[in-house]
Amino acid sequence: MKIPSWLIKPFTTFVERYYPDPFVFAVLMSLLTFCLAVAVTDATPAVALQAWGDGLPSLLSFTAQLSITLLGAHALAHTDRVQRVLAFIGALPRSAAAAYALVALTAGIGSLIAWSLGLVAGATIARQVAIQCNKRGIRVHYPLLVASAYAGFVVWHMGYSASAALFVATPGHSLEAEMGILPITETIFTAENGILVLITLAAIAVLCPMMRPTEDEILEIDPALLKDSNQPEQVSNNIETPAQKLENMRALSSILGLALLLYIAYSYYQKGFFLTLDIVNWSFVGAGLLLARSPLHYVRLIENASATVGPIILQYPFYAGILGMMIGTGLVTVISDWFVSAATAETLGIGAFLSAGLVNLFIPSGGGQWAVQGPIFIEAANQLQVDHSVIVLAIAYGDQWTNMIQPFWTIPLLAIAGLHLRQIMAYTVMIFIVTGVIFISGLLLMGAG
Q1: Quick one: angle between helices 191-210 and 142-151, nearest 10?
Q2: Which InterPro entries match (predicted)?
Q3: Reduced to 3 DSSP states, what percent helix, strand and coil does the chain have, rounded to the nearest 5?
């Protein structure tokens, strides 16, 4: 069964004509935020400008963490052993429909483990599937394969790296006085969340193949991409000097990688299981070093991964500026209050979901969103006697939902895949529509509306 092309065509036409580059999108969102702040709050243009400028450096430390996450995940995904595993997975599909479903599921499972792993592994497996299908004469539409990889990202905030859930489960968090400590067994590890994960993954695994184009519209992978340009060149066998021997000594990188993993294991032994972005980062780096051929090989893997983080390093300070402007002018409070004022105990969860989805377009950061919206909705939940876990999950779902139309997180995926945003966004808009129905239905069944 396929979705008729006439149903997808309007989205394709709109995206091709009007969807800008992710950096231009960030600039436009900055201008829109400025105009809204001046129009609907008491802030003057000067105050809004000051708040924007003050916000620019506010997420620099997180930007550095983010960059290491993507570099480490990319390097790990391109080590020899992981590449062999990915090539094996890439050779599994025996039809185009199975190829799209496999990529979506692989990216979704990766996103549940860690959001960065989902993006990098999803893009890498999409490329591997395209290469293997090309070898076997199976024609697949490469943009849809990559869109399927991004579709898997729609479940990231339901998994182990869920920012909001991990935040409220941490002793001493800033809202502990208002809501106490909410363990992850009451949020991401509930049966309701698990069932919704399975339904969402099943839905995208079915929907992605249904969006495949007709034979004459298929765009196969560029022949130039058939050879993996992300793999570093083989090191020369002419190793003569002591320095060269050290650079190519696998034991050095293995010892360092093992030390990082032992540190993480010891931390778990001392403090119990916990997951932070730093732990995720050192897990990726440690595993990458352990699997790399040598210290120099790992350096080359990181160098090749750098293309995925350059645009993010450029853009994230501007999103931090948007965050600063929304907080400094009170715009985020106004937006959240619109939803809270119209809510009852029965509809607050849906209001939190829709509000989070809207704010995510301006602030593509799960943790950043919770920091500005969490206090408002938790206060409303206390007044209306709504379960805190519903609010946490509603904001998490809203955040991940509109990533399907927010281009920021496509940057590392598209850099690996070698495509442009406009080639995949029409498909992710369809994912956005379908998963929106799923998330709202799930929240209603949880008692959020």
Answers
A1: 170
A2: SCFA_transpt_AtoE
A3: 75, 0, 25
Structure tokens at 307: 């293309």
Q: Are 146 and 413 in contact (CB under 8 A)?
A: yes
Say whether pLDDT at 279 is over 70.
yes
> Given pLDDT bands bounded at 50, 70 and 90, which one contains residue 366?
confident
Determine the Cα–Cα distance for residues 95 and 139; give it in Å rounded to an integer: 8
Give the helix ranges, DSSP H, for 41-113: 45-55, 60-77, 80-90, 96-113
H-state helical runs in 342-419? 348-362, 366-384, 388-401, 410-417
Q: Which residue in 435, 413, 401 sits closest to 147, CA to CA? A: 413
Tens digit of each residue's pLDDT (9 = 90 or more) over 211-242:
999 888 899 998 877 765 556 656 556 777 98
Q: Count Cβ atoms within 10 A of the Cβ of residue 94 and give its class: 0-12 exposed, 13-18 middle, 19 or more buried.
A: exposed
Distance (Å, whole) CA 46 – CA 449: 40
Instruction: Give the span between the Cα atoms of 300 and 303, in whole angstroms.
Output: 5
Question: Is the model's pLDDT at 288 over the cut of 90?
Answer: yes
Residue 143: is its pLDDT beyond 90?
yes
Tell me the average pLDDT across 426-443. Answer: 96
For residue 433 the two structure tokens come to: 């529509």
Task: Pick left, alpha or beta for residue 162 (phi over 0 → left; psi -120 to 50 → alpha; otherwise beta).
Answer: beta
Mean pLDDT of the chain: 91
The residue among 81, 146, 129, 121 whose CA lies nearest residue 226 is 129
- Rounded distance, CA 74 to CA 302, Å? 8
DSSP result, 185-243: GGTTTSHHHHHHHHHHHHHHHHHHHHT---GGG--PPPGGGSS-TTSPPPPPS---SHH
Q: Where are the domains of the chain?
A: 19-223+242-446
Confidence of residue 7 (pLDDT cuts 50, 70, 90): confident
